[in-house]
């Protein structure tokens, strides 16, 4: 929750812009500063800064809920808790599909079809809820330049020929999938940190990163001293933000 943007903490636009000039854009950035540092960057009094701290803390603190409320929310509409893979055996193992509100990691040896599966899930997320989809957009972060628009259209047409029965519907589906090619750990992390506003403005219902392992392997040789710590830090920061986004917007990642 600390990854929440300050704009969503109901601070004034003027204050958010002022903080942004000091590279303070999230609740975590704000809460990591001392009172004196906050007084300096905001230009406000000790008393006003204390009120700001309370406001930001409340904005990013998870709301209390009972175990019963969590169970009830999922039992009222079980389909909204998962994005079905349309593969019966896999959905059965996953108890309904890829869960909304949490992270799912897909691992396998190279060449087993992970990218094809991700492309298929992109199509499924754009489908209407009545067809088991999420009726939303997709953010697809491609770190290996492996995404194929032609394959996307082919999968959509072959799997759902009745629904995608016109070029217009296929065109509409492709416009709902937003592709970002990020080839370094730094650019991947920067993109992840900026996703919150994209999720809201583009009505995103699914986030895919294909794949984290690719950029990590290229940049971190764990045999070298210090690389293991840097690698762990990168993975922890990225996972923390993605977990927040999944939970905050109840979407599968």
Automatic annotation (TrEMBL):
InterPro entries on file: HHH_XRCC3_RAD51B, P-loop_NTPase, Rad51_C, RAD51B, RecA_ATP-bd
Record domain RecA family profile: where: 79-253
Subcellular location field: Nucleus
Pfam family, one: Rad51
Gene Ontology terms: cellular component: Rad51B-Rad51C-Rad51D-XRCC2 complex; replication fork
Keywords: ATP-binding, DNA damage, DNA recombination, DNA repair, DNA-binding, Nucleotide-binding, Nucleus
GO terms (BP aspect): double-strand break repair via homologous recombination
GO molecular function, one term: ATP-dependent DNA damage sensor activity
Record's subunit section: Part of the BCDX2 complex consisting of RAD51B, RAD51C, RAD51D and XRCC2; the complex has a ring-like structure arranged into a flat disc around a central channel. The BCDX2 subcomplex RAD51B:RAD51C interacts with RAD51. Interacts with SWSAP1; involved in homologous recombination repair. Interacts with HELQ.
Function (record text): Involved in the homologous recombination repair (HRR) pathway of double-stranded DNA breaks arising during DNA replication or induced by DNA-damaging agents. May promote the assembly of presynaptic RAD51 nucleoprotein filaments. Binds single-stranded DNA and double-stranded DNA and has DNA-dependent ATPase activity. Part of the RAD51 paralog protein complex BCDX2 which acts in the BRCA1-BRCA2-dependent HR pathway. Upon DNA damage, BCDX2 acts downstream of BRCA2 recruitment and upstream of RAD51 recruitment.
Similarity annotation: Belongs to the RecA family. RAD51 subfamily.
Record-given protein name: DNA repair protein RAD51 homolog 2
Organism: Gavia stellata (Red-throated diver)
């Amino acid at each position: 929750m600390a990854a929440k943007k300050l704009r969503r903490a109901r601070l004034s636009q003027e204050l958010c812009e002022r903080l942004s000039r000091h590279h303070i854009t999230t609740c975590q950035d704000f809460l990591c500063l001392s009172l004196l540092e906050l007084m300096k960057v905001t230009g406000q009094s000790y008393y006003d800064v204390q009120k700001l701290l309370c406001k930001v803390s409340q904005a990013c603190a998870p709301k209390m809920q009972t175990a019963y409320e969590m169970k009830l929310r999922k039992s009222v509409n079980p389909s909204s808790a998962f994005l079905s893979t349309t593969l019966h055996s896999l959905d059965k193992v996953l108890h309904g599909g890829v869960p909304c509100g949490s992270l799912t990691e897909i691992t396998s040896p190279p060449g087993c079809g992970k990218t094809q599966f991700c492309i298929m899930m992109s199509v499924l997320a754009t489908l209407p809820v009545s067809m088991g989809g999420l009726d939303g957009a997709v953010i697809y972060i491609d770190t290996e330049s492996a995404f194929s628009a032609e394959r996307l259209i082919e999968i959509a047409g072959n799997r759902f020929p009745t629904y995608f029965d016109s070029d217009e519907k296929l065109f509409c589906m492709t416009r709902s999938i937003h592709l970002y090619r990020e080839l370094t750990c730094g650019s991947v992390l920067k993109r992840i940190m900026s996703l919150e506003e994209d999720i809201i403005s583009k009505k995103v219902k699914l986030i895919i990163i294909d794949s984290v392992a690719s950029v990590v392997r290229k940049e971190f040789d764990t045999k070298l001293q210090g690389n293991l710590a840097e690698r762990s830090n990168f993975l922890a920061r990225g996972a923390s933000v993605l977990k927040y986004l999944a939970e905050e917007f109840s979407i599968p990642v």
